[in-house]
């Protein structure tokens, strides 16, 4: 239960909201007070052991300055439905509310106090829609780029960022467009992201450990949904997805490495575009066949010694439009049997074709006998 705006407190600014809420870490109820800015004090969230201690003006158990928070957002990776997360410099402080309506009221009030003035008609929004605390592994890009240890994986509608926990500035942060992510997946508490060569880190994969399988599942669902939405946006920036070459086989795919590492564990889907997604192709691109590369055809020529029937075999170069080829005959060229032994130099020197040039050549060398 929470109350509305109250009078200014001697120990801080005006009370915006207050009520009994649970801390996610201990699951114990505390009395929380959300204060606005006042003379000489900043907006903050406080909590007390009881409402009585607050009314008796005792000091709070803890006070969190909203302006110092890295991010404030709704958290959806726990078994509780209505959770607000306040990410400070070094930790994540979470509150459990009783309903979605109460969550929206508290969250909007906190974001409005954190961001300051919000234009009329606009709702305050967090800097990142989703934040997950992960432990980067010394594998793949993590090893090559020295990205390991505790990080925050932060998602917006267009980017995915890695921010080192406890860093004094953003020099260690990495931002990657969702368009440059090839795939992602997870097995138990290990999450995996593969990025393309257009990413700031170059192509490779990130491996990270999370608290449990529920968090990994939530990360997969949320990130793949954001990837689909980003790709369907007409105003998206960056190049289109690149079709990957056929030079890599199945064993070279990082997702296979994940499968081998967790033998016997179910590997959950890793593509926002279906079961195959942006997988490598299994064969080289095909092209349309030319007339000279069609199916074998039978050519019948008039000759005084009888009809010589030859099965047309495709050659690398056609006689039509490119001049005649005077290469040696192909010994393995199959010739269908005829009624007479064929000793014609034409059949030995020139690959017969259905082209008009072939017939013209034969008629020139062997005019009809009259």
UniProtKB/TrEMBL annotation:
Domain IRS-type PTB, residue spans: 128-234
CDD domains (alphabetical): PH_IRS, PTB_IRS
Chain segments carrying region Disordered: 230-299
Swiss-Prot/TrEMBL keywords: Differentiation, Growth regulation, Oogenesis, Phosphoprotein, Receptor, Repeat
GO aspect biological process, one term: insulin receptor signaling pathway
SMART domains noted in UniProt: IRS, PH, PTBI
GO CC, any one term: cytosol
Top-level division of the source organism's lineage: Eukaryota
Extent of Polar residues compositional bias: 288-299
A Pfam family this chain is assigned to: PH
Entries under InterPro entries matching the protein: IRS, IRS_PTB, PH-like_dom_sf, PH_domain
Domain PH residue range list: 14-115
GO molecular function, one term: insulin receptor binding
Function: Activates phosphatidylinositol 3-kinase when bound to the regulatory p85 subunit. May mediate the control of various cellular processes by insulin-like peptides. When phosphorylated by the insulin receptor binds specifically to various cellular proteins containing SH2 domains. Involved in control of cell proliferation, cell size, and body and organ growth throughout development. Also has a role in a signaling pathway controlling the physiological response required to endure periods of low nutrient conditions.
Subunit structure as annotated in this protein's UniProt entry: Bindings to phosphatidylinositol 3-kinase and SHP2.
Designated name of the protein: Insulin receptor substrate 1
